[in-house]
Amino acid sequence: MRDAYIEELDSIFDDLAGICRRVEISVSLATEALMTGNAAIAERVISEDIEIDNARERVEETAFNLLLLQQPVAGDLRTVVAALRMVSELERMGDLSVHVAKVARLRVPDVAVPDEIRPTIAQMAAVAEDMVSRVSSVIVGRDVEAAIALGKDDEEMDGLRRQSFAELLSDDWTHGVEAAVDVALLGRYYERIADHAVSIANRIVFVVTGHKPRAVGE
Amino acid sequence: MRDAYIEELDSIFDDLAGICRRVEISVSLATEALMTGNAAIAERVISEDIEIDNARERVEETAFNLLLLQQPVAGDLRTVVAALRMVSELERMGDLSVHVAKVARLRVPDVAVPDEIRPTIAQMAAVAEDMVSRVSSVIVGRDVEAAIALGKDDEEMDGLRRQSFAELLSDDWTHGVEAAVDVALLGRYYERIADHAVSIANRIVFVVTGHKPRAVGE
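YS: structure for the whole thing
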């Protein structure tokens, strides 16, 4: 009985890591759609989000049944509760990549991001993707050091967000209101993906050590 | 023992309703700061958010201890798990009102919202505040009908968001990029507050009836 229980707890973490890898693909494809104005890729991100939603429901059911049938105590209970929160955040990250894909789709056959600001947005996307990718490893390996290191990338994201605002509010901006609004919202979506990555990493620290690394930025 | 347990479960809902009323005040004050350019009110929203964060932690502790010590089954377990999610969403709604207050503060002594678009933004704020206010009643009364009705307000919010985009992308928009970006982000913040209100209402429906009213919009 006890063995089956440990196995079930581990399988929740495998499922979380699997969802995280799906989110990584979703963020990556949404960025590709955004940067190339490719409607088919944008549609794929939007339509495949249901798989992340379904995977979330399965994790919730497993966690709920574990609480119901095994009545875990102390550390195990903390782990299950944390898993429920992490899966919500992963689903939300999927939704945010759908928002990016929808901005891309709205501007097809044009590209939403004007040339001058492409490097900044591409860098935000790269930081977000990298953080999601590293969260998968943090979940699989319950890696506290890697989790704490993730917080530093979040500072890079904040810097990029400020830079994007400086660019679109400068006198050199010639692309008008629509492109500026797109860029501001895209920045918000990538920033929120990064926030959730940090929050999940912090929850892993809490699960492993029993201590919160710092105020969780959610 | 059993009585103390029921009492504790009820007290979690009282706490959630109390946090919801704090969020309501926070949204209302943030809107006032935004519409008047009042820095002191914006600062108050920003500094008092810690009280919502602390109240969240207390609810999480109570719920965790309840899971640990009482090992609730079936409906009660569903209730405690739902409470953990609802308190996360309420904290997030508090954060979003802080974002509104920060936009207000950034533009002091000016007002971030240009005159022509004030009616639309004021209406978004009013819809969001009303939804938060009604969520408090839904939580207190476990009121399924009122919870389902909340979903309809969300459609009004979507319509207002589309309207705000139409206004700031029209040829009549003379306020430049900065004001447009402010308005687009403010719209996003109010929309997310509304989304969370609907999501909490849906969780109450699930707690009371055991069925999800529809896909939870989060």
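YS: worth flagging: The longest helix of chain B spans residues 2-36.
IM: good catch. Also DSSP finds six helices and no strands in chain B.
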